[in-house]
C-alpha cells in the first residue's frame, strides 16, 4: 500500500519517470543552489561576523543587527528608506496595477489592436531599468529636460518644477518612472486572465440587463482575483527590492537629502560605496532582514489573498 | 518507453555539459602557455578608476617607461567605473587575480586596503620629502607609507573668460567685487554659478571653495582636530550659512537641488553659467565638452568677518600608486622599478602635460596657463581640504553628513546651526589618526 502510494506520488504529470524527472529538475536546482541559496545563506552568515574590508575579524553575534537599529547613520536612515520602499509599493499599486487593469480591460474589447498595444506598452520593460532611470533623469532635468520645456511651451510654465530636486516630488517620480517601465507587465497578466473568463458569463449577465460597470465588478473582477493577488505580491517584491531606478535618479545616497533612499541603496552604500562603505557585516544584516521581511509578508499576503479569492469565486 | 525517455534526457544533458565543458577548456590556457614566451619578459598589470585616462597612460605615459626598461610591459586598465572601483579592487586584492599595481584612494579611503599592499618606505626613497598634508594621504594608520601620491587636487573658482570679457567683468579681489560679478551676470541673463547640488557628494567641495577662508581653513583645522572646537563652531556655521546665502546666484536658485553635477558642468562648458566652484579634476571635463572654452581660475575672496586674512585654496591628494602584497615574486623587481619611476620628474611631467593635473612628483613644471594659475594661487595660500585630509577616517565620514545637510539647507528644511551640529555629532567619537 505504502509502496504504491510512494510510487504514485513520485510519478509526474508529464509522464516522465522519477529518474528522468529528477534529471530535468537537478540542473536547475543546482544552479538555484549555487547562485541563490548559497549567497543567501552566506550573506546571513556574514551578518554574524565582524569585517574589516573583506577580512573576517571574528564572530560578532547580533552586533551588526544592533548597530543597524541603534547607531547613526544607519538607525536614522533605515526607517525612512523602508518608508520609501512602501511608498514605491503604493505608487506601483496606484499607477501601475490599477492603470494596467484598466488598459487590459479596455484592450480586451479590441481584438486587432490588442496585440499591437500590448507590445507597445511592454517595450520599456525590455530596456534595462538603469537606462530608463538615466533617461528620465535627463527628461526631468530642470535645465535641459523636455518635460519642463514642454510645460512652458503649452502655457503651463507655473507647473514647471525641479521634479527630482524636490524631496516632495522626487520619490513619486521614482514611483511613476517605475510604473512607466513596468506597466506592460500587469497589462499582459491581466489580459491573459481576462481572456480566460468564459464569454458566456458576460453574455448571460447582459441578457439579464447588467450594465458594463456591473458586469466588471460582479463578474470580471472576482474572477480576476487570483491574477490581482499574484500581481500585487510580485509588485510588493519588486518595490521592496527596487534598486536600479532609485540609483539612477538619486545615486547611492538617495539624493537629494536621502529623499529617494530605499533599503537596497542603504545596503549598497553600507557595503560598497566609496566613502562610507566596507561594512560588510551591517550590509549583510540589512540584506538578511530585507529578505525575511519580503518572504514573511509575501507568505502571509498569499494566505490572506487565497482566503479572499475563495470568498469571491 | 520510460527507458527511452531517460536515455534521451541523459543525451540532452550530456550534450549540454559537453558544450559547457568545451567552452571552459578552450577559454583556459594551459599552464605552460605563457612559460614558453620570452623568459625575461615581465607583464605588469595596473588598475585605476580613471576610465578616461586609459589611452593616455597606455599610449603616451607608460611607453616612455617601457622604452627605457626593455623586457617590462605595462598594461594600464580601468576595469570598472569610478563608483564601483573600491569594491572591485577589494575583491581582487583579497583573491588571487588582483593587479600587480593599483591606484588606491587616499587618506581614510586607503585604510581598508593596507593589509593587502606593500609598505613602500624602503622601496621608494625620497617620499618623505613630499608636502606632509599630501603624503598623509598615502599613509596607513600604522604610519607606514603604502602608496606614491598620484595627483594633487586644488579647489577654486573656475570662470568663463569670454563671458567676463563680454560683460566687462574682471576677476574679483574683494568680497564686494565677487558679489558685483554675480549680480552683473544675473542681470545679463547668465547663471552666475553652476552648482550640481542634486549630487550631495559635490557640496562639501563647493562649500570649501566658497567658505574655507570664512571659517579659518588651516587655523580651524588645528583647533577642530585637537578637539578645541567642533563643526558646531560659530565660524564654521557662518561659513556654511554663506553657501546658503549665495543660493540665489546658483543656476536654478531655489531649485538648485534639481541640478546634477553633469548638468552644472554642461551649463558652464556651454557658456550658460559664468563661474563653477570645483576641483582641478573638472578642467579636463570642461575642455572635453568644449575644446575652445576659455577658462580662468581664482580663489574666492575673503568674505566679511573672515577668520583667514587671505583667500585660501584647499587641496588634497587624490589617490596613490601601490604594489599588491601578493604580487608574483618574479615580478617584484620590475614593480619596484616602475613605482620608483612613478615618483620621478619624468613621470610627473608626462601626467601634468597630458592629463592636465598636478603631480606629486618632484620638479614638475606646468606649461598650461590655467594649471599655472591654480598652482600659483595654491602655493600662495595653501590649506588642507578638511573633509578628506582629516575626516575621511571617521565612520560616518564628515562629508557624507555635510552633503545631504547642505541639500536640506538649500531646501529650507535645516538651518546652518543644525547642519553644523549634525556634522559635529557625526564625527564626535571619531579618533583621528596621529601621524
Structure description:
The complex is a heterodimer of chains A (313) and B (435). Chain A is an all-alpha fold and 313 residues long. Chain A has one domain (69-312): MetI-like fold, CATH 1.10.3720. Helices cover 73% and strands 3% of the residues of chain A. Chain A has helices at residues 2-10, 18-46, 63-70, 74-108, 111-122, 129-139, 146-153, 167-182, 184-195, 199-207, 212-241, 244-250, 263-272, 280-312; strands at 49-52, 55-59. In chain A, strand 1 (49-52) and strand 2 (55-59) form a beta hairpin. Chain B is built from 17 helices and 12 strands. Chain B has helices spanning 2-27, 54-68, 82-94, 132-135, 161-166, 175-187, 203-215, 217-226, 234-245, 261-269, 282-289, 332-341, 345-355, 369-380, 386-389, 398-410, 416-426; strands at residues 42-47, 72-77, 101-104, 148-149, 151-160, 191-193, 273-279, 295-298, 313-317, 320-323, 358-359, 382-384. In chain B, strands 5, 6, 7, 8, 9, 11 and 12 form a 7-stranded mixed beta sheet that branches. Chain B has a 5-stranded mixed beta sheet with strand order 2-1-3-10-4. The longest helix of chain B has 26 residues, at 2-27. The termini of chain B are far apart. The model of chain B is unreliable at 1-38 (pLDDT under 50). At the A-B interface, helix 2 of A face helix 1, helix 3, helix 10 and helix 16 of B.
